[in-house]
Each structure stands twice: as C-alpha cells, then as structure tokens.
Automatic annotation (TrEMBL):
Bilayer-spanning residue ranges: none
BP GO annotations: tRNA processing
Protein keywords: Glycosyltransferase, Metal-binding, Transferase, tRNA processing
Gene3D superfamilies given in the database record: Queuine tRNA-ribosyltransferase-like (3.20.20.105)
Protein name, entry field: tRNA-guanine(15) transglycosylase-like domain-containing protein
Example of a GO MF term: metal ion binding
Residues annotated as domain tRNA-guanine(15) transglycosylase-like: 68-151, 186-451
UniProt xrefs under InterPro entries: TGT, TGT-like_sf, tRNA_ribo_trans-like
C-alpha cells in the first residue's frame, strides 16, 4: 500500500474512533440524571459516527430470487432455523452431527457462559469457535432473558427451554434443589442490573457495556480478522401481564440500554467484525411497538430482532405480526435481517416466514426430541407409545434422509426410549434438527416459486 494511502487510512480510523468515543460521551451526558424518575433524552442518528451507517455485514439480499444473509465467512440461507445451544453446546449431539443435519446458525447464551466457564476462559481459548470446534456462525444473546426471568418468576419455564439452573448442586442437605434462595432477587437500576449467581450465590452485575464486552470475549479470535457472530444488546423483558405504564417505562429503558450497547460495540467493531441486532419491544401495544420500531431503526444496527411478549397465545402473535412486519419494508429497513427471538414451533414458523422473518431461534425441536416427540410431515410422533414397538423397517418420516432414518426404524427408537438409553435422545435430536432444516429448505423453495 502506498505511504499516502496508508496515512490516509490511519487518519480515517483515528477520526472514526474519536467520533465514536465522542458520541458515547455525549450519550452518557444525556442519559445520566439524579433520579430514575426523570425523563432522559435518547441519542439520535447524529450521535453515531458516519462509518457506522456503512452497508451492514449481515444484510439480506432481497433482490435475487433466493434471499440470503451475508456473514464474514459466507452466507446463511434464509429463512433459516437457529438451534439453541445454551451452554455453547447442543444437548446430546455434537456440532458435526448438527452440521450434517443442515444446521447453519446456533444460538448460545451469555448469561450461562458468563457464570461458567466464564467469558475470560472462552477468550483465552481463542473464542467460541475454537472453544467448541465449530466453524459456523453463532448468535449470542445479552443474558437479559434469564436475568428478568428470575425477576418476574418465569425462570422455571425458561430453564426448561434450555437453561441449567435446576442442575446446580445444593450446598448442604437442607438447601433446596432449585436454589430458591437466589430466585427473584434481581435489582434493576438505570446503569445496570444486579443478581446472584445460581451456582455459588455470588453477586453479578450486568450492564449494557459489560454484556457487549462479554459477548465480544465469547467471539474473540486473535488469529482471524473476521468473526462469525451476531450479538444482542441488553434489554428489559417484562411479562405479558405488566401494566401499560410499566411497559412504557421498560421500553424507554431498553432503548437507553440498547443505545449504550451500540456505542460500546462500535468502539472496536472495526477490528472485530461482529454484527449487532437491536431488539424491538412494546408487547402487544400498537403505539409502543411502533414507537420502538421507528426509533431503533434510525440507528446503525446490522439487523432487527423482535423480542418481548408477542401476546398471550399464537393468535395474538399473528395479529401483532400482521400489522408490525410491513413497517420493516421501507427502503431504509428492508435489507437488514429480521430475527424472531425464542419462537420456532412449526405453526409459528409458517406464520413468521409469511410475515418476512429471515431467522428464528428456539429450543423446541431439541427439547421435545429428548422427551420422545419426533417431528414428521404428518404431525408429531410420540415414539415411546406401545404402538411403535413393532414398527419394523418403518422410518420416523417416510421420505426423511437424516442419518437416524437412514439407519434405524421406529421400533428401535421406541426400544431405546423405553430402556432409557441415551442413544435414543441423540438419534431423536438429530432427526428433529434435520426435519427443521428441511422444513426451512422447503419454505425457501416455496418462496422461490411464489407460493409464500
């Protein structure tokens, strides 16, 4: 590179860094006040450096016949299913088996990785890709979902969806197995949220900035110039039944936290090229959802995630998506990824794809597999039922080509589950992952042919 060009590049990088730091300082001055009850001014697009608005590294190319999401190391077919590997691991299957089943994106949880093994350990290992031996892209969340599940009492349900709190050993014979001494003790302040580790009861402080730093540690890779990782900012996740005044306050604070997260991300995003998605909130309230969407999409995010409560049941979710998702079709918004957080059962997937979602994550297919429920084109199969005990030579799904269906029949799967053999869990999980990815491939084909 000529000396003149090298100097010009160095000056440009320095200018951008100063702009990002200056913007962060301006935002902190706007966000800080002496009382949690006083309103705070949110930053605008002008508070962010110009280079942050360059074309996204995770944009969706919707101009071609087949929409894809670009990542630093390649593309991800969309719409696509994202499997949940809470502890940087898919339960009972390894990543090569998941890759063989067509799994492209995996979702891991910062909250659990922060508590064990610690994000510093993952950073020292060379990042999550080297730590796990997986080359494919990851999405990491902020950890907020688990924290606010503790606060609002939904922790048991959230942990059944992939968490590990119930496996924490008790200290002493009189201690409860579920460590109820740490549940519900969550303190939310303007700057951060405090909670106790379910592993040892130690105090944990999570802020928008520390959540981003933790996720960057998880994705750190000193040997590569680019990283395949999508990160999520810290936000507040209120329950469905919350009063509107509280919901509005949580949306405003989420916006402040997400803006702080974005500033933190931009400080070194030129070196570590993770993508960052905002999280649109507002529950089922039309005004709050619209306000959240319109504000967040003015900032330089790489993609949009839809989070928070989507209603009390699937019908409310369908109503919400029917009026909200068209708002993403403006010129400024249409080429960025749209991710549906935490929902990916079969019926919801069809609804989400119809409304333009590109990716969606859920532990649903792997969780039900471990309980003996298998996915097929004709509906669910409860493989532990006696009717399958002599289903010799019968595949789980008649035209499935996964490794489980290629080598084993329903009778053997029924035997494995009845005998409590761990192999049954693995084979069922491989099949369900393959089914989900084949379903997404079929939907992509339908989009190509104009059927969706």
């Amino acid at each position: 590179m000529p000396l003149h060009d090298a100097l010009e590049s160095m000056v440009a990088k320095l200018r951008n860094r100063v702009l990002s730091i200056g913007g962060r300082k301006r935002f902190r001055s706007l966000a800080t006040t002496t009382s949690d009850h006083l309103p705070r001014k949110l930053p605008t697009s002008l508070d962010f450096p110009p280079w942050a608005y360059e074309p996204s590294r995770s944009c969706i190319d919707r101009r071609g016949a087949r929409p894809v999401m670009t990542t630093p190391h390649g593309i991800v077919d969309t719409p696509g299913f994202v499997a949940v590997g809470t502890n940087a691991a898919l339960k009972v299957v390894d990543f090569p088996a998941a890759d063989d089943a067509g799994q492209q994106l995996v979702f891991s949880n910062t909250y659990h990785l922060l508590l064990h093994p610690g994000t510093d350990v993952i950073r020292e290992a060379g990042g999550i890709h080297k730590f796990t031996g997986r080359d494919g892209p990851f999405i990491t969340d902020s950890g907020g979902f688990q924290v606010f599940s503790l606060k609002y009492g939904g922790v048991a349900e959230s942990l059944e969806s992939g968490g590990e709190l119930k496996r924490s050993p008790s200290r002493g014979k009189k201690k409860p197995y579920w460590r109820s001494d740490v549940m519900g003790k969550v303190k939310v302040m303007e700057d951060h949220v405090e909670f106790k580790s379910y592993r040892d009861g130690s105090k944990i402080v999570l802020s928008p900035e520390s959540s981003i730093r933790a996720q960057k540690d998880i994705g750190a890779d000193n040997s590569a110039s680019v990283i395949e990782q999508i990160i999520i900012p810290l936000d507040i996740l209120p329950p469905h039944h919350i009063a509107r005044e509280e919901l509005a306050a949580s949306v405003e604070r989420s916006h402040r936290w997400e803006a702080r997260s974005l500033f933190e991300h931009l400080l070194d995003s030129r070196d570590r090229k993770q993508a960052i998605f905002c999280v649109v909130h507002g529950g089922t309230d039309v005004e709050l959802r619209t306000k959240s969407l319109e504000y967040l999409t003015t900032l330089p995010w790489d993609g949009y995630a839809i989070g928070g409560s989507l209603g009390n049941g699937r019908e409310e979710m369908k109503t919400l998506l029917s009026w909200m998702m068209p708002l993403f079709n403006t010129i400024e918004r249409r080429d960025k990824c749209r991710h549906l957080l935490g929902i990916a059962d079969i019926e919801s997937i069809h609804c989400a794809v119809h409304h333009g979602f590109d990716t969606m994550d859920s532990s649903y297919p792997t969780k039900i597999a471990r309980h003996g429920t298998l996915l097929t084109k004709d509906g669910l199969i409860r493989i532990k039922r006696g009717q399958h005990a002599k289903s010799f030579g019968m595949k789980i799904d008649h035209d499935c080509e996964c490794s489980t269906c290629t080598h084993y029949d329903r009778a053997y799967l029924c035997h494995l589950f009845k005998s409590n053999e761990p192999l049954g869990l693995r084979l069922a999980t491989v099949h369900n992952l393959h089914f989900m990815n084949r379903l997404m491939a079929d939907l992509r084909r339908d989009i190509l042919h104009g059927k969706v």
